[in-house]
Amino acid sequence: MSNNLNGTDATVQHEVSREIVAHDFQNAMTGKLDDATISSVKKQILSASTAYPANGSVASMIFYLQFQVTVKNGGKTFNGKGGGISSPGGGALFGDVYTDDINRLYANTVSMQFNCAFAYTSILFFDKSSNLLGSFQSGSVSTVAGVGGGSGSWS
Known about the structure:
CATH class: Mainly Beta
InterPro entries: R_equi_Vir (IPR008810), R_equi_Vir_sf (IPR038625)
CATH architecture: Beta Barrel
Pfam families: R_equi_Vir (PF05526)
Number of domains: 1
Organism: Flavobacterium humi
Distance between the termini: 29 Å
Number of helices: 4
Radius of gyration: 14 Å
Structural class: alpha+beta
Protein name: VapA/VapB family virulence-associated protein
């Protein structure tokens, strides 16, 4: 069970499980990344111990997407732009940012990988060496479905 800074259990608050996110990451990246990298990222997705309540938005123009994620209660905002193949549209995102070091996440994020399904959206945040720093896992009120990656930072 993870610690959630708003005092609730993240697994009760949101239907999206880290197991689903890890599984979908593996499916999306098989053949694109080596098995050791996929295994390492999956392990990190499953092991992050602190959840920070967050909300955000996604806007998709089919091959180009924009994401915004804001950590609640005075946290920073992630702005990301990416590419991939997705359905057009947009929507609202409600969930948690999982990380073991929020300051490292804020300071070192340079890229992201996203997986948008109609029921949930996951954004994985990476540093310049492709090390996973954290993830945003959310339920979605969205018309966007697709997988891809891009760049972004917190401010």
